[in-house]
Write a structure and sequence with these properties.
alpha+beta; 2 domains; three-stranded antiparallel sheet; two-stranded antiparallel ribbon; 4 helices; 31% helix; globular
């Protein structure tokens, strides 16, 4: 009896085709790779690539390492250092706005936490082109 159940499991496993996942997360059978659909760039990724760009500067924070903060969106990535003006797609503003942390709110005596409120985890400033040029020049002169 145990031999029959082992055979059934072996037959089922042998019938399953091996699968692979490409980097765009489309599942394709290994046998049909030449007939596999081409990965499509999502509408969101096209928006990020051709999106209007803005100048921002991340504020100094204990939560941001000195080497910079990694930010990813639709398969694209940026390493943004605090205090350095960067020209990024406008969609990055949404990512920064969505990055929240919760900080405690203390009672009047400062003895007890009564609740937690949301706060920005990655505070930033939007810069005009003139401000960005001035700050960039200042940093170049320091080097």
């Amino acid at each position: 009896m145990p031999a029959a159940s082992t055979k059934a499991v072996t037959k089922k496993t042998a019938a399953v085709k091996p699968r692979s996942v490409n980097r765009n997360a489309l599942v394709v059978d290994d046998d049909d790779e030449e007939d596999a659909p081409k990965p499509k760039v999502s509408k969101g990724a096209k928006d990020v690539i051709g999106d209007e760009r803005v100048w921002i500067i991340l504020e100094e924070s204990k939560e941001i390492p000195p080497t910079g903060q990694f930010i990813g969106l639709n398969g694209r990535s940026w390493m943004i250092r605090p205090g350095v003006p960067v020209h990024v797609p406008k969609a990055i503003i949404g990512v920064l706005n969505d990055a929240e942390k919760h900080v405690p709110v203390m009672d009047a005596d400062g003895q007890k936490i009564i609740e937690y409120r949301p706060a920005m985890r990655l505070p930033y400033r939007l810069l005009t082109d003139a401000e960005a040029a001035r700050l960039t020049e200042r940093q170049k002169s320091r080097v």
